[in-house]
């Protein structure tokens, strides 16, 4: 191999491997035939042309893959994920609403109401958060995709507005803890906006799935209220009922939809729950404290803002690898079945039997004649 040919082959690596396998030798032959015998370096014009055309082929394949991927279940998964996140945010707001009502109606007047809502508004902000997220859930469950996509914006505005209102009078560490809702609400907006052109939730769930999801979502809200009322009497639940009910809600939504959508739903839910779950695990294990400074502060910022992005990227990679493994496995099984079992025995066998039967019929007809 000459130096010029070697350099041409290096340039051709800009093309996808499949394209090189089909056309590399032919392209090398054309390039070498048009070059002077003593030339050692490709002309700049050829270098630019090869790079341009190679990148065009790669981008074209990426575009076709994206168009195929875009219509392969991600919109359906976004509809389900947006519904689950909205139900979770409604349950969180509902819990604070129940706690605030308990203090307002049954506790001593000097007990502060500001810990449950914005000072001076009683429970208006918490009530609005619960109402808007509940409306988003209802719209999605009734198949009103565009309505849900519109309602998520005022719901997000109220949710994030309450957080921003809390931040100035809150310690830095607690402010970072509150900021998990920024990521979660952002995922909810993205999912419901993308899902407005997909299939509605009733079609994805079916009648039984709708009933089951509604029952579990209602159970999540009731569990939140009961846990808060039980906490007020000084008794502790043996398990963290909110996490258990939320897990049942997610599992119900994932298992209700078709197998081709389940993995995508799980991938989209990862960034929504990675921040708060990681925070709670770090607090319960003693790795972080709500009050602190220095390295602890940077660790909290990393947990709440960076972990969801890293977790989403990891989940997407795992999903793609898993799907390719399944695709390759099905392709291998299909080749073996068609090549040996079906064509080799079943098809040829039927053909042979068919010829024998036809021959026997002709013999009988001849004798009768």
Automatic annotation (TrEMBL):
Stretches for region Disordered: 330-369
Transmembrane segments: 77-98, 118-141, 148-167, 179-198, 210-227, 239-258, 265-291, 297-319
Keywords: Membrane, Transmembrane, Transmembrane helix
Name of this protein: Uncharacterized protein
Composition bias, Low complexity: 330-360
């Amino acid at each position: 191999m000459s130096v010029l040919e070697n350099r041409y082959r290096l340039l051709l690596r800009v093309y996808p491997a499949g394209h090189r396998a089909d056309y590399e030798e032919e392209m090398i032959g054309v390039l070498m035939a048009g070059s002077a015998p003593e030339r050692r370096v490709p002309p700049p014009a050829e270098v630019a042309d090869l790079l341009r055309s190679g990148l065009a082929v790669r981008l074209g394949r990426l575009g076709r893959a994206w168009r195929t991927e875009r219509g392969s279940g991600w919109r359906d998964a976004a509809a389900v994920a947006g519904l689950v996140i909205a139900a979770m945010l409604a349950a969180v707001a509902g819990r604070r609403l129940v706690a605030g009502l308990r203090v307002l109606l049954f506790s001593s007047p000097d007990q502060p109401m500001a810990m449950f809502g914005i000072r001076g508004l009683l429970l208006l902000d918490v009530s609005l958060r619960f109402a808007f997220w509940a409306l988003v859930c209802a719209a999605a469950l009734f198949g009103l995709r565009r309505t849900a996509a519109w309602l998520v914006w005022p719901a997000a505005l109220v949710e994030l507005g309450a957080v921003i209102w809390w931040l100035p009078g809150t310690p830095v560490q607690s402010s970072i803890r509150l900021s998990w809702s920024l990521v979660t609400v952002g995922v909810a907006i993205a999912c419901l906006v993308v899902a407005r052109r997909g299939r509605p939730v009733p079609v994805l769930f079916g009648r039984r799935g709708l009933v089951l999801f509604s029952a579990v979502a209602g159970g999540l809200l009731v569990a939140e209220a009961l846990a808060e009322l039980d906490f007020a009497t000084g008794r502790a639940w043996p398990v963290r009922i909110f996490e258990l009910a939320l897990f049942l809600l997610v599992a119900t939504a994932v298992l209700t939809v078709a197998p081709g959508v389940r993995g995508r739903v799980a991938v989209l839910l990862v960034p929504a729950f990675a921040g708060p779950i990681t925070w709670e695990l770090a607090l319960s294990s003693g790795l972080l404290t709500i009050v602190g400074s220095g390295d602890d502060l940077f660790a909290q910022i990393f947990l709440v803002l960076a972990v969801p992005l890293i977790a989403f990227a990891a989940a997407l990679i795992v999903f793609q690898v898993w799907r390719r493994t399944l695709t390759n496995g099905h392709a291998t099984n299909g080749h073996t079945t068609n090549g040996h079992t079906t064509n080799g025995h079943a098809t040829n066998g039927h053909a042979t039997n068919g010829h024998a039967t036809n021959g026997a019929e002709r013999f009988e007809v001849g004798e009768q004649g």
